[in-house]
Amino acid sequence: MVKIKMYGTPTCKDCIIAKQVFQELGTDYEFINIVNDAEAAQKAINLNNGVRRIPVILFEDNSILVEPTGEELKTKIASE
User: Alpha-carbon distance 69 to 14, whole Å?
Assistant: First the structure.
């Protein structure tokens, strides 16, 4: 079962960086494209306290990173 969910868009620069980090580290994740999914877009906004920023990355421990740098994401994944 995938334990990380990433809400974003295919063309978002920070989303692309996050995907590259996941690939580099061999980390399984679920990408949820919010472009044509109003419910998923609203979920991402709600997870981020009403702020519209992506990617919103939800981890198994219910912690969240929003617009993390590649290094921030690597550090978080290493601590899992």
Answer: 8
